[in-house]
Design brief:
Length: 178
């Protein structure tokens, strides 16, 4: 997008939309699910209970008559949603899916040659935690080095550490096809 700053100068902003590779069916290289919103995910608009809380919502699920936080990224990655038919698509790379969740939308080149777009549908309600900050905190990148390519390169070069580092961001995004 672009716009004038009122002084004759223009500001251009860019938008990055990731491209992933996937399938509508599990198998082969396509083993990483992109989930649609689960049917047990409850969003509570807090303004309905207190007008001072307009603009705030919490997400969770009902368990044993109690409203509890929804599953975290680590819970979901270790199977909390498996075998529930929530898979929208299957992709070939958990790191690419992680960045899709950060961006909130992207394109998936399907194994049948077609291209589909996916976009944000909901979230698990846990707070977002920036992975770049984590990489600085553990001392593997400096603030000046943090960029999407640098983060992705580190994750790819450290497959044993990548899942745990990504799980520090407990937030999890659910998608719909657009």
């Amino acid at each position: 997008s672009s716009g004038s700053d009122g002084r004759g100068r223009m500001l251009f902003t860019g938008y990055y939309e990731p491209l992933l590779f996937g399938s509508r069916r599990f198998g082969g290289a396509y083993t990483v699910p992109i989930y649609r919103p689960p049917d047990d995910l409850v969003q509570v608009d807090l303004a309905r209970f207190n007008p001072d809380l307009a603009g705030y919502a919490i997400y969770g699920r009902v368990e044993g008559g109690q409203f509890v936080p929804y599953y975290s990224r680590a819970d979901i990655e270790t199977g909390a949603l498996a075998d529930r038919g929530l898979e929208l698509l299957w992709v070939d790379d958990p790191i690419d899916r992680f960045f899709l969740q950060i961006q909130g939308s992207g394109q998936v080149q399907l194994d049948d040659g077609s291209l589909t777009r996916v976009g944000y549908a909901s979230q698990n309600g846990h707070p977002y935690r920036a992975i770049g900050r984590d990489l600085v905190e553990i001392g593997v990148l400096t603030l000046d080095e943090v960029s999407l390519p640098a983060i992705k390169a580190w994750l790819e070069a450290h497959p044993g550490d990548a899942p745990g580092l990504m799980a520090r961001n407990r937030s999890y995004i659910f998608f719909e096809e657009r």
